[in-house]
Design a protein that fits this description.
GO terms for molecular function: heme binding; iron ion binding; methyltransferase activity; monooxygenase activity; oxidoreductase activity, acting on paired donors, with incorporation or reduction of molecular oxygen. Belongs to the cytochrome P450 family. Keywords: Heme, Iron, Metal-binding, Methyltransferase, Monooxygenase, Oxidoreductase, Transferase. The chain folds into two domains: 141 residues, no CATH class; 152 residues, Cytochrome p450 (Orthogonal Bundle), CATH 1.10.630.10. Helices cover 52% and strands 11% of the residues. It contains 14 helices and ten strands. It has a two-stranded antiparallel sheet with strand order 1-2. A hairpin with a 5-residue loop joins strand 1 and strand 2. Helix 5 crosses helix 6. It starts with a helix and ends with a strand.
């Protein structure tokens, strides 16, 4: 899943895949490096007084957070310079900007193309620093979170055969009725016309949100009263999506993976559930990349469950379970699955 999401972010940002799917492995340790950033940042946020020393020491270790941050930063700078050069050559030769043709022959502008074009037009407004932060932030924020969500979705589908079969039945019915036009891939808009698939995604993000920290907010001037308690201005408040999503007063049997809960509720209960649903956060600070994440999940999961069978092989915990750790993101580990092509 990480290879897929890393390559997708590469396509969106630079118009080219990194090659993780082609190689089937962690190229140059990039996946490990980005993962180490989360661990390092979390620990340093808690033990901030140790940050200067820890950064200096860990910078010499390949698997450390600081070393990972250095690696990702170097990788981003190399890509920026490469695209700057390509943009300059294309602009001089053809008087235009670099565009990428997708598999349908439609011209697309990668994220970095748009940024460099803005940089050329106004280098003081869109600086080299902005280019660097966009390149680095897209990778750090965009690949691991979606990979976690994809893994969680497949895990719960495999642990709940009834749901997996119901999803396959929906895909078969949609194909038979002509709603799915592609043989080996699915159009995003077509996936949004699959009502059961949409609630499978929603339920998977409820039971396993990628973000495992409270979504912090600062109380504004004048303070605020919440549930009869007054919080003065400047107070930092936060609610974890894991706490909200497992609220037994709103979600019946919250530990159960049951997509139908989003269908069989009355209007009042459904409204209460949606008000607490926050896998991407809520309000003005909600995740700006949520649509990209939804796109990736909607393109991949239907194809996987349609074309392949899966079997959970082993796990370090009791059979069929998995392990997770929370360093900012709630990341699953050591989940091994055997894959078979469906006949």
């Amino acid at each position: 899943m990480q290879c897929y999401t890393f390559d997708v972010i590469g396509c969106i940002t630079y118009g080219e895949r990194y090659g993780f799917l082609d190689e089937g492995q962690d190229i140059q340790g990039a996946i490990q490096a980005v993962g180490s950033i989360g661990r390092f940042s979390t620990l340093m946020g808690i033990y901030s007084e140790w940050y200067p020393l820890a950064f200096k020491l860990n910078g010499y270790l390949n698997d450390s957070g600081a070393g990972g941050r250095t690696f990702v930063a170097k990788f981003a700078r190399e890509k920026i310079e490469k695209h700057k050069q390509e943009q300059q050559e294309e602009h001089l030769e053809k008087g235009g900007d670099v565009k990428i043709l997708d598999r349908d022959g439609i011209s697309r502008e990668p994220f970095m193309t748009k940024m460099i074009k803005s940089h050329r037009q106004d280098p003081e407004k869109v600086t080299d620093y902005h280019l660097f932060m966009v390149a680095q932030s897209n990778v750090i924020a965009g690949f691991d979170t979606t990979a976690i969500s994809l893994t969680a979705m497949m895990y719960h589908l495999l642990k709940t055969p009834r749901v997996l079969q119901k999803l396959r039945d929906e895909l078969n019915a949609a194909r038979a009725s002509g709603k799915l036009t592609g043989k080996d891939r699915i159009n995003f808009h077509e996936s949004q016309d699959l009502p059961y698939f949409k609630v499978v995604v929603k339920e998977a993000l409820r039971v396993h949100s990628a973000a495992g920290l409270p979504f912090w907010r600062v109380v504004p001037e004048g303070g605020v009263d919440i549930e009869g308690i007054h919080f003065p201005e400047g107070t930092v408040l936060g609610v974890s999506s894991w706490v909200a999503h497992y609220n037994e007063d709103v979600f019946t049997d919250p530990t159960e993976f049951r997509p139908e809960r989003w269908i069989d509720q009355d209007e009042t209960n459904l409204k209460a559930m949606n008000e607490l649903y926050m896998p991407f956060g809520l309000g003005s600070r909600t995740c700006i990349g949520r649509h990209i994440s939804t796109l990736e999940m909607s393109k991949l999961i239907p194809v996987l469950v349609d074309k392949f069978d899966f079997e959970i092989v082993s796990s370090p915990a009791k059979e069929g379970d998995w392990e997770t750790e929370n360093f900012w993101f709630v990341k699953p580990h050591n989940l091994k699955v055997r894959v078979y092509e469906r006949r």
